[in-house]
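Posting for a labmate who doesn't have an account.
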Amino acid sequence: MSRIQGILSQLYNENYIPKYDMIYLLENLHEGSREQLFDCARKIRSKYYENKVFMRGLIEFSNICSRNCIYCGIRAASENVDRYRLSKDEILSCCKEGYELGYRTFVLQSGEDRWYTASKVADLVSSIKELFPDVAVTLSLGERSYEEYKLWYEAGADRYLLRHETASRNLYEKLHPDGDFDNRRQCLYNLREIGYQVGAGFMVGLPGQSHYDLVEDLYFLKELKPHMIGIGPFIPANSTPLAKEKAGRVEDVLVMLALTRLMIPESLLPATTAMGTLDPRGREKALMAGANVVMPNLSPIATKSKYQLYDNKICTGDESAHCRMCIEKRINSTGMKVDMGRGDSLIA
């Protein structure tokens, strides 16, 4: 048995390997061992979630953001962004359409837009829960205070997505000139303490990112043990300082997805739109590497193209019903089946 095979065997059986073995794995994987890794990831996913892929309805309700993350297409300093906010009624209308299409999880995402005060968000959440008591509400609104997170949880929010972005302090501070590395992490621990199902995650292929940085991401996630982990490629965006940088590679994201499945086997892993943007079959490949969540877009067509975190985002002209059926066909093509239920994580 080769060293790589031995490392993969230990990772499969114990869900853990020392960092030096993880570094060795990342530096020495070849085509055959990658396929072995993906096969291990599929087996582990099947053990916990069978062949189910959970569908979430994504509503991008504001592209206004107060932050200046240097990779993001809707950063505050970008002047060529057509800004918008959806009203409460418009958001509820998206939820109604999604509910009729079978969705039982709504993901409400925006830039860090403080126009949506704590009380406005709480009112929105409670209204969704009143209209649709059997759905899960996921929020992704960035960094807020402990008190705000608690208010929204008490209003009925079930989940919160907040990518940690990178576990490297040095890289984080380069990418987030107005960010606070420690506060970002503290927010994740606050959310867990309050009782949310928590989502974290990171990008692959960031300028200056090393194998060591990616390994640190995996071991931070192992410690945090979030319920959902979003991993996608870096894709450059116009009007940002990184506009001319190379995008991350789909193949590298697939490796990190599979390793994450093996390290945190009960987590939920999305096959992201960004993967489909870089590769026409990127989402299918992600499912074949251990992912088990997709998030079709329920936002109004008039605003879909305005929420451009990166260039050339796909599906911005699709009706919600078309998007729903298209994704299901893609999922079925991998031998997996759509589950339209809440799709709660098995992590306690």
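Reply:
Got it, the structure tokens are right above this. The CA atoms of residues 110 and 167 lie 23 Å apart.
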